[in-house]
Design brief:
By secondary structure, the protein is of the alpha/beta class. It contains seven helices and five strands; from the N terminus they run βαααβαβαβαβα.
Length: about 160
């Protein structure tokens, strides 16, 4: 726990937590996977009402932080999507271009860094492996179970370090 007097942080994942990715899953089912098309379609993701509502509610007590496995090259599209859907402003932590480590490693690294100076009230994420590792590290986790899980996306997150 930190002695920082600033508001605690509520950390939100994007894909399948705030943004619905079902319409672009087809790009991951093809072989080879079409990552450029997958990320190019992200600006057209529909907002997920349950995730958006939780982010808006959490903003009353917490500073909102976004933590995604999307690569840095998607920053502008992602910021525009967040603003277009009325989500609270907040820092956006993205995967470095070329970083292929599993999401559970990259996200836990960022959570630990945030927790050094701020209270992390909760992490909201749909990835079970990310959630399990965050819980083991002592973080409170809200599992975003409001979309159908995608085996292709999970394989991409864990095995290919792409999102």
């Amino acid at each position: 726990m930190t002695t920082d007097s600033r508001r605690p942080l509520a950390v939100f994942d994007l894909d399948n937590t705030l943004a619905g990715t079902a319409h672009r899953q087809r790009f991951l089912e093809a072989r080879p996977r079409d990552w450029d098309a997958f990320f190019a379609a992200a600006p057209h993701d529909p907002p997920i009402p349950q995730g958006v509502a939780l982010a808006l509610e959490s903003a009353g007590e917490c500073e909102i932080v976004y933590l995604t496995g999307r690569p840095e090259r998607c920053r502008r599209d992602t910021l525009e999507w967040l603003a277009a859907h009325g989500l609270p402003e907040g820092p956006l932590h993205m995967r470095r271009n070329g970083d292929r480590r599993p999401a559970r490693h990259t996200k836990l690294e960022v959570l630990r860094r945030l927790a050094r100076t701020r209270e992390v009230r909760m992490l909201v994420d749909d990835d079970d492996l990310v959630c399990e590792d965050a819980e083991r590290a002592g973080f409170r986790v809200v599992r975003a179970r409001w979309t159908a899980p995608s085996g292709e996306l999970r394989a991409a997150q864990e095995g290919e370090g792409r999102t």
